[in-house]
Amino acid sequence: MSYRNIFTMACIAASSLIAAAVMPANADGVKIEQKVAYLGSPNNIKLSNGNVELLIATDYGPRIMRYAIADSKDDDNIFATMPPDKPTLHTEYGDWFIRGGHRLWHSPEAVPRTYEIDNDPIQAVIEGNTIKLIQPLEKHTQILKEIWVTLDPTGSRVTLMHRLTNKGSFAVEMSGWAMSAMNKGGKAILPQEPFVSHDKVKLPARPVVLWPYTNMKDPRWMFGTNFITLQQDVNNNDSQKLGVFDTLGWAGYSHSGALFLKRYSVDKSKAYPDYNSNTEIYTDGGFLELETLSPLQQVAPGETLTHTERWWLFNKVDLGSGETGIAAALQPILSQTEKELN
Predict the structure, then answer these.
(1) DSSP structure string for 57-84
(2) pLDDT: is 265 or 3 the higher one?
(3) What pLDDT sits at residue 25?
(4) Nearest-CA neighbor of 218 among 241, 185, 184?
(5) Which of 1, 105, 283, 311 is least surrounded by CB atoms within 10 angstroms?
(6) Displacement of CA 299 from its chain's centroid (Å)
(7) 3-state secondary structure (DSSP) of residue 16
(8) Following CA atoms 17, 23, 26, 28 in sequence, which dihedral angle do they give, to the nearest 10 degrees?
(9) Positive or negative, the Cα torsion across 133, 280, 80, 29?
(10) Mean pLDDT for the stretch of residues 223-227
């Protein structure tokens, strides 16, 4: 019997030991519901604190498929979801499906290594208000992927620890790559470095990285003094991508009045993938991806690389008009989340 089959059977056995209905709210007020049907899969976990809710897949993944205001409509999901009716990519490892939601990869990107198949059941270990999602060992890369998801008892903050463990026999240089597929029709927001006049500063502030298919004339882009934005347009199927070294450590996405914010640490002393990008945005006609990366690291056999994101979701946020409106809307949100981090 293969390692993958043994792991899958263990996951199924472990999941059967967990209550199949609603677990009462723990001491912190976080409620966990098992075996929730979602997007054609029966074994999802719903995590809620009365303010926000998450739906976490266990029949495949690890994936977080929904993050939304509690008890809101299906389309209020800040994440994009795509039915697995046909493979996104055929590789020598098998068929890979985009599915949507939030996932973990390891960078730099390469086919087929990056697209190791994630269609098998995963293990979900519940510890208080934390759910540890553990994927079967990647057969070809010998990398073990985990996402540890922790929901705060109040508010909307979610902490995600992304873990990549090298189970192989030699060191691997890689970066943790956290990728959130965002719902269609919204706008990604990246901060520009604080503007300083040429009279005061002569040296560059950061790299802006382009892909061969990046078209800076595309009207979905806005390159402003304080922000770079990218609009998702369902009527424009051209792919666009851009990377930056974001020293401010945040990126956002606005959708139907909701604002999603992710924050992450930045290490200026270390090298990052893709010409030193720690933040990347991609879009086509189906969705937009908001991506963060950890520094490149030589991970020895048995060692684990970690990359942490913290999420918030704010409702009824009016970005107003242009950069002035964005700045006015974001200022109190950035101040609040900075206080929560400290």
Answers:
(1) ESSSSSEEEEEEETT--GGG-SB-B---
(2) 265
(3) 53
(4) 241
(5) 1
(6) 22
(7) helix
(8) 120
(9) positive
(10) 97
Domain that holds residue 71: 3-341
Q: Which two tokens stand for residue 184?
A: 């269609």
Report in angstroms the alpha-carbon separations of 68 from 8, 48, 331: 30, 10, 22
Residue 277: the pLDDT is 98
The CATH number assigned to the domain holding 252 equals: 2.70.98.10
Place of tokens 């892909």: 211
> Could you give the dihedral angle defined by the CA atoms of residues 148, 174, 143 and 252, in that order, rounded to the nearest 10 degrees?
30
- Residue 26 confidence (pLDDT): 56
| DSSP character string of 290-326 | EEEEPPPEEE-TT-EEEEEEEEEEESS----SHHHHH
Q: Within 10 A of 138 (CB to CB), how many other CB atoms are there?
A: 20
- Torsions phi, psi of 5, nearest 5? -65, -40
Which of 58, 46, 55, 52 lies closest to 21, judged by CA? 46
Are β-strands 158-166 and 89-91 bridged in parallel, bridged antiparallel, or unpaired?
unpaired
Q: What is the pLDDT of residues 73-128, one digit of tens each?
A: 989 999 999 988 888 999 999 999 999 999 999 999 999 999 999 999 999 999 99
What is the average pLDDT value for the chain, to the nearest integer? 92
Structural domains counted in the chain: 1
